[in-house]
Amino acid sequence: MSTTLDRSQDIVAAIDEPAPTTNSTPPKTTLNIQEIQKLLPHRYPFALVDKIIDFVPGEKAIGLKNVTLNEPFFQGHFPGHPLMPGVMIIEAMAQVGGIVLTQLPEYNGGLFVFRGIDGVKFRQQVVPGDQLIMTVELQAFKRRRFAKMHARAEVDGQLVASGDLSFALVEV
Questions:
Q1: What is the CA radius of gyration of the chain?
Q2: Catalytic, out of 42, 77, 81, 150
Q3: How many beta carbons lie within 10 A of that of residue 163, not counting itself?
Q4: Of 43, 90, 113, 116, which sits most exposed with the smallest number of CB within 10 A?
Q5: Using CA atoms, how far apart are residues 140 and 61, in angstroms rounded to an integer?
Q6: CB-based contacts of 89: which residues, under 8 Å, 6+ apart?
Q7: According to the 3-state scheme, what is the secondary structure of 130-166?
Q8: 150 labelled catalytic
Q9: Of the candidates 170, 106, 101, 103, which has an alpha carbon nearest to the alpha carbon of residue 138?
């Protein structure tokens, strides 16, 4: 005599049961322009980050800048051969770094400003139509006031600039 176990009722019951839920919300990994403007004080014509496409709180952020001919610096840099100035690339990387710094648990307000720029090298030109992708990683945060970050900027997967950026927190 053989016995057969009918498990169909168990399977239906398992399907009907709701999946267990957790109360923890995964951290946000992208930021749109409105969310960036809540974190950074920069506004036109000096807002140089259009979107944060990846973010690890307290560690790093990857930002995007769509470079267009409408940028005000192209009027004089250079007529007939527009190039994004290196200082603007550095500033764009710093703004991505600011996103990381303002999200540190120790941050209690204020403004992060440049303290130093070390070993920055420019390898390629950035021109209208390029999409600048900037990756900025926190290296150190000391005494709740000083930060050092490594930054790199790429266009189409090619490195265009990289170096270390230092910041100091000032009261505003």
A1: 23
A2: 77
A3: 17
A4: 43
A5: 15
A6: 122, 126, 132, 153, 160, 161
A7: CEEEEEEEEEEEECCCEEEEEEEEEECCEEEEEEEEE
A8: no
A9: 101
Q: Of 120, 119, 99, nearest to 35 (Cα)?
A: 99
Task: Kindly report, residue by residue over 30-39, the tens digit of the pLDDT.
Answer: 999 999 999 9
Distance CA 80, CA 77 (A): 9
DSSP β-bridge partners for residue 65: 132
Query: Which token pair is 25?
Result: 């919300």
Reported pTM: 0.84
For 30, half-sphere exposure in the C-beta direction (CA atoms, 13 angstrom radius) is 5
